[in-house]
Amino acid sequence: MTQAGLKAMEELRKLDDEQRQGRLPINIIAYRSQYGSVNPAAIVGPGIAATAVSTIVAVVYCKMVDGKRRV
Q: Is the Cβ–Cβ distance between 13 and 21 less than 8 Å?
């Protein structure tokens, strides 16, 4: 890579890190609290459940596709 390419990659990494910091679940809880939510942390449980279900579905799907390919 050239020096300009390396510099561009470094700047993109910095930008990505800055954007990721604003996406933490704690910020959502703080926003919900700020706007008067009765239970601002209520979003955590459903978020974890949705992530778990989608992960399980993805693993099962990949196993099914892999099983069909091996036959």
A: no
C-alpha separations of 14 from 5, 11, 35 in Å: 14, 5, 31
**The residue type at 1:** M
pTM, two decimal places: 0.55
For 19, 26, 32, 43, 62, the CA distances from 22, given in Å and listed in that order, are 6, 9, 15, 17, 32
- The region that residue 37 occupies, defined by phi over 0 for left and psi between -120 and 50 for alpha, beta otherwise, is beta
pLDDT tens digits for 56-66?
999 999 999 98
